[in-house]
Specification:
Elements (H helix, E strand, L loop, with lengths): L9 H21 L4 H23 L10 H16 L1 H4 L3 H25 L4 H22 L14 H16 L4 H22 L20
Helix pairs in contact: 1-2, 1-3, 1-5, 2-3, 2-6, 5-6, 5-7, 5-8, 6-7, 7-8
Length: 218
């Protein structure tokens, strides 16, 4: 079991919020939203997972409201996404890599905080996964798109879940918290990038209803 509070460096958490907020701002630009829309989508994507974790699952004060650095990261992400959208495609590989790292970090942070709040290991891993992917789900819901994690495609939620499960499993066996956290981040990062590189994809379940055709949405 985890022996006490363990926190990854705040810079990783804040960087993850920044990166995810950039994706929210980019979604707003694609939808041709105004400044308010850009800020709302940047906020919901960058910090939506933490909001769901603290407000819904843990019923605790929302952590990012107590530290202005998170909101500054979201503001910076909104500015970058809004004003440099055309140029970001040139560094797409870098964004994918950092996004995969942020996915693992958010998952591990969410799992640790959930376990520290008293949740059992399995529940903490689940909440950690929600912490990692919740912002993207909120973004898609707000723009009235079908959430990407519900569709067949590259491993994303599964990558986050793998990292959270490994982190909690190693911590439960007595491995040091730092080692367990790094291993969890590494597996989420690796699964995500390997899914992109090797074309690993989830598949749609075919309907047995007469005349129904399988969903071919990528």
């Amino acid at each position: 079991m985890l022996q006490g509070p363990f926190h990854l460096p705040l810079a990783i958490d804040v960087t993850a919020a920044f990166l995810f907020s950039v994706t929210g701002a980019l979604a707003a630009v694609r939808k041709r939203y105004d400044l308010v829309g850009i800020l709302v989508l940047a906020l919901s994507t960058g910090l939506g997972g933490a909001l769901l974790r603290d407000g819904v699952f843990l019923q605790a004060p929302v952590a990012f409201l107590a530290d202005g650095r998170y909101l500054m990261a979201v503001l910076a992400g909104a500015i970058v996404g809004a004003f440099f959208a055309r140029h970001l495609q040139r560094v797409r590989l870098a964004l994918v890599v950092v996004d995969a790292l942020a996915l693992g970090a958010y998952g591990v942070v969410g799992a640790q905080k959930s376990h520290a709040a008293g949740l059992p290991l399995i529940s903490a891993a689940l909440v950690g996964t929600v912490n990692a992917v919740g912002g993207g789900v909120l973004r898609d819901v707000l723009v009235r798109d079908e959430p990407l994690i519900f569709k067949p495609g590259e491993f994303y939620a599964l990558a986050a879940l793998a990292g959270c499960v490994l982190f909690m499993g190693l911590a439960a066996t007595g491995v040091g918290e730092e080692v367990a956290a790094l291993a969890g981040i590494a597996i989420a990062f690796s699964v995500r990038l390997l899914s992109i590189r090797l074309g690993w994809r989830t598949g749609a379940f075919a309907s047995d209803e007469p005349g129904a055709s399988p969903d071919t949405t990528p």
